């Protein structure tokens, strides 16, 4: 058994906002509240959930763009959360990010060549002669013509910009790529091109992905394993097929049943959830899902369920009624 | 078969930018029958939203202008209406809901005031009765504690609740036609499911015809009776929801359906469409899909195909007919 490439254990992020006159009262928003998972080398782990569930915050903490309130992040045997300065910069070479908004994540005043070359220069990976060769190589890899190197981001469509962002992430030959909603701003025909590209790159360069998205069909397509988040907690985690075919947590079931299927004859046994997502600044007691769960009972209100393995499927879910529903 | 309630005939809309005319919609024909939900699907820039704005005549604030065609509502051409007549129809006989409920509600007015205003614009009823009707509409779209919400401001509500308020407002005068432009795109899937339910109930109870504009083929399959697929300002294929999803004819429709990942399908690759939507200047002379089409023939570059049988704009279809 290989060691996991990334191990996240008990990760928490609590944002403190000060309210009121003279900022006298404090409000704590538990954006991420105790999340643990492993990602094995070469694997795609999909983190899925609705807006505000903490999936992006989790990604940003792993990227060291946000400091975790609690918990550990171990990447390739090293505790990322304890690194800083030069050691962190050195480690960063091995994990890169692809962002959601291809319009906001590329500097409009830099040419495509400079955008892709920047990480190479920062990490001193190529000599000045080598940089051009590498930039062309990367453009070939992501399917853009070499002549675009001299152009600026505004000259490109969303899908092409996302390819530039992918080339930049690949430049330093990372082991792990964290992709935060990389296709949600794209039209479906372009989305499918980028998803296919990400799969091809994974095979070619032996990449490991943390793929963060709200779209279950997309996460299902790309992932080997899936984690479902709700209100800052992982409520279910397991192999892709097991989660999609045999969801155990009532929230995962509702989420799956809510996805519109492109088949007009599909029989829908939809579980329509009542109400809205509670605010993470005032989360419900006990199980975070009990306010919307059709099966909630006394224990759910009082006691927070831990992740445990379901006997029927072998994957884990956090529900008091596991194996009983 | 009954008469269509709304029929769009040879609609042309273009935008004037820097002295140049950019065509956005080029000759659309589409009919909406009573109680029917018709889906208008396409990618960004296909002209689907411009079509809806042209029907509602909301292009005044933009550089856009309807340059040809007619939009018949119960036999009368909306495009020839005076401002006064337009105001009478809009929000009363035909209403519209938009993608972003926050920008369509007035942030400084209470929900109740906005609803009452919309109702009294079209109905001669007292303030008290209008208020009662507004609360009734909020209940119909499934808003809990509707009376309290009447006194709240839009920012106090969640996205899903705001969209419900928009639907309540749009439905408050019992319109015959509802135009919904990406009404659930900004919402999470569990909330989207709630809103789609509300819209279906509205149709069932009031026999409202809905023109449903979206890029999401899943939503189309779930909601619509008929579908029109738009590409580069044209309808390239239309038919019943079963025809479109089970037996698509146009290569673009096929490509679009192949592009979406299907839940639980365990696919290894998606059948994607190569290239990207051409800009207006780069549109091919013949078929607008020629540069991305896997079945392109010489003829396709030369001459644009008509809408064969009113169903499908592709030369391959003509050949099929000839061989049959």
From TrEMBL, chain A:
<comment type="similarity">
    <text>Belongs to the ABC transporter superfamily.</text>
</comment>
<feature type="domain" description="ABC transporter">
    <location>
        <begin position="6"/>
        <end position="256"/>
    </location>
</feature>
<dbReference type="InterPro" id="IPR003439">
    <property type="entry name" value="ABC_transporter-like_ATP-bd"/>
</dbReference>
<dbReference type="GO" id="GO:0005524">
    <property type="term" value="F:ATP binding"/>
</dbReference>
<dbReference type="InterPro" id="IPR017871">
    <property type="entry name" value="ABC_transporter-like_CS"/>
</dbReference>
<dbReference type="InterPro" id="IPR027417">
    <property type="entry name" value="P-loop_NTPase"/>
</dbReference>
<dbReference type="InterPro" id="IPR003593">
    <property type="entry name" value="AAA+_ATPase"/>
</dbReference>
<protein>
    <submittedName>
        <fullName>Peptide ABC transporter substrate-binding protein</fullName>
    </submittedName>
</protein>
<dbReference type="InterPro" id="IPR013563">
    <property type="entry name" value="Oligopep_ABC_C"/>
</dbReference>
<dbReference type="GO" id="GO:0016887">
    <property type="term" value="F:ATP hydrolysis activity"/>
</dbReference>
<dbReference type="Pfam" id="PF08352">
    <property type="entry name" value="oligo_HPY"/>
</dbReference>
<dbReference type="Pfam" id="PF00005">
    <property type="entry name" value="ABC_tran"/>
</dbReference>
<dbReference type="GO" id="GO:0015833">
    <property type="term" value="P:peptide transport"/>
</dbReference>
<dbReference type="GO" id="GO:0055085">
    <property type="term" value="P:transmembrane transport"/>
</dbReference>
<keyword id="KW-0067">ATP-binding</keyword>
<keyword id="KW-0813">Transport</keyword>
<keyword id="KW-0547">Nucleotide-binding</keyword>
<dbReference type="InterPro" id="IPR050319">
    <property type="entry name" value="ABC_transp_ATP-bind"/>
</dbReference>
UniProtKB/TrEMBL annotation, chain B:
<keyword id="KW-0472">Membrane</keyword>
<dbReference type="GO" id="GO:0005524">
    <property type="term" value="F:ATP binding"/>
</dbReference>
<dbReference type="GO" id="GO:0015833">
    <property type="term" value="P:peptide transport"/>
</dbReference>
<protein>
    <submittedName>
        <fullName>Peptide ABC transporter ATP-binding protein</fullName>
    </submittedName>
</protein>
<dbReference type="GO" id="GO:0005886">
    <property type="term" value="C:plasma membrane"/>
</dbReference>
<dbReference type="Pfam" id="PF00005">
    <property type="entry name" value="ABC_tran"/>
</dbReference>
<dbReference type="InterPro" id="IPR003593">
    <property type="entry name" value="AAA+_ATPase"/>
</dbReference>
<dbReference type="InterPro" id="IPR003439">
    <property type="entry name" value="ABC_transporter-like_ATP-bd"/>
</dbReference>
<dbReference type="InterPro" id="IPR013563">
    <property type="entry name" value="Oligopep_ABC_C"/>
</dbReference>
<feature type="domain" description="ABC transporter">
    <location>
        <begin position="6"/>
        <end position="257"/>
    </location>
</feature>
<keyword id="KW-1003">Cell membrane</keyword>
<dbReference type="Pfam" id="PF08352">
    <property type="entry name" value="oligo_HPY"/>
</dbReference>
<dbReference type="GO" id="GO:0016887">
    <property type="term" value="F:ATP hydrolysis activity"/>
</dbReference>
<keyword id="KW-0813">Transport</keyword>
<keyword id="KW-0067">ATP-binding</keyword>
<dbReference type="InterPro" id="IPR017871">
    <property type="entry name" value="ABC_transporter-like_CS"/>
</dbReference>
<comment type="similarity">
    <text>Belongs to the ABC transporter superfamily.</text>
</comment>
<dbReference type="InterPro" id="IPR027417">
    <property type="entry name" value="P-loop_NTPase"/>
</dbReference>
<keyword id="KW-0547">Nucleotide-binding</keyword>
<dbReference type="InterPro" id="IPR050388">
    <property type="entry name" value="ABC_Ni/Peptide_Import"/>
</dbReference>
């Amino acid at each position: 058994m290989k060691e996991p490439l990334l191990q996240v254990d008990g990760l928490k992020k609590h944002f403190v906002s000060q309210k009121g006159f003279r900022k006298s009262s404090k409000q704590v928003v538990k954006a991420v509240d105790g999340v643990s998972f492993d990602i094995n080398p070469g694997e795609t782990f999909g983190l899925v959930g609705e807006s505000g569930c903490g999936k992006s915050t989790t990604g940003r903490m792993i990227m060291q763009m946000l400091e975790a309130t609690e918990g550990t992040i171990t990447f390739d045997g090293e505790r990322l959360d304890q690194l800083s300065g030069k050691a962190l910069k050195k480690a960063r070479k091995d994990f890169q990010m692809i962002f959601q908004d291809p319009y906001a994540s590329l500097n409009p005043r830099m040419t495509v060549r400079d955008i892709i070359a920047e990480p190479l220069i920062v990490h001193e990976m190529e000599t000045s002669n080598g940089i051009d060769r590498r930039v062309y190589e990367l453009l070939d890899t992501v399917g853009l013509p070499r002549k675009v190197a001299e152009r600026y981001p505004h000259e490109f469509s969303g899908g092409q910009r996302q390819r530039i962002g992918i080339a930049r992430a690949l430049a330093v030959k990372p082991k792990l790529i964290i992709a935060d909603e990389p296709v949600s701003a794209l039209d479906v025909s372009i989305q499918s091109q980028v998803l296919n590209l990400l799969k091809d790159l994974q095979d070619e360069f032996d990449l490991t992905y943390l793929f963060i998205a709200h779209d279950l069909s997309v996460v299902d397509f790309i992932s080997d394993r899936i984690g479902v988040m709700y209100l800052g907690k992982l409520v279910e985690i397991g192999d892709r097929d097991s989660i999609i075919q045999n969801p155990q947590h009532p929230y995962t079931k509702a989420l799956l049943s809510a996805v519109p299927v492109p088949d007009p004859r599909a029989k829908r046994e939809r579980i329509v959830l009542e109400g809205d997502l509670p605010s993470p600044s005032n989360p419900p007691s006990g199980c975070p899902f009990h306010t919307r769960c059709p099966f909630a009972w006394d224990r759910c209100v009082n006691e927070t369920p831990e992740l445990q393995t379901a006997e029927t499927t072998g994957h884990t879910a956090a529900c008091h009624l596991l194996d009983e529903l | 078969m009954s008469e269509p309630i709304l029929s769009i005939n040879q609609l042309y809309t273009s935008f004037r930018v820097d002295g140049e005319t950019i065509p956005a919609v080029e000759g659309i024909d589409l009919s909406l029958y009573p109680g029917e939900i018709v889906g208008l699907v396409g990618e960004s820039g296909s002209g689907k939203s411009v079509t809806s704005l042209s029907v509602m005549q909301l292009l005044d604030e933009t550089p856009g202008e309807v340059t040809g065609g007619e939009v018949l509502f119960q036999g009368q051409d909306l495009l020839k209406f005076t401002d006064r007549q337009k105001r009478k129809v809009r929000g009363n006989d035909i209403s519209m809901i938009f993608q972003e409920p926050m920008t369509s509600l007035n942030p400084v007015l209470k929900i109740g005031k906005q609803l009452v205003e919309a109702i009294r614009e079209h109905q001669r009823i007292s303030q008290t009765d209008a208020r009662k009707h507004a609360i009734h509409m909020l209940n119909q779209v499934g808003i809990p504690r509707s009376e309290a919400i009447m006194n709240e401001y839009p920012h106090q509500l969640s996205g899903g609740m705001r969209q419900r308020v928009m639907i309540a407002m749009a439905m408050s005068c019992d319109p015959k036609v509802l135009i919904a432009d990406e009404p659930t795109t900004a919402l999470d899937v569990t909330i989207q499911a709630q809103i789609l339910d509300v819209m279906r109930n509205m149709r069932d109870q009031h026999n409202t015809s809905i023109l449903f504009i979206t890029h999401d083929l899943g939503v189309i399959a779930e909601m619509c009776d008929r579908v029109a697929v738009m590409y580069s300002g044209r309808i390239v294929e239309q038919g019943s929801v079963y025809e479109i999803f089970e037996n698509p004819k146009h290569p673009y429709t096929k490509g679009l359906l192949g592009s979406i990942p299907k839940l639980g399908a365990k696919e290894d690759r998606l059948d994607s469409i190569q290239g990207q939507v051409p800009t207006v200047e780069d549109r091919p002379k013949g078929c607008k899909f020629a540069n991305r089409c896997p079945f392109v023939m010489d003829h396709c570059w030369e001459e644009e195909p008509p809408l064969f049988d009113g169903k499908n704009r592709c030369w391959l279809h003509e050949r099929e007919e000839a061989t049959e």
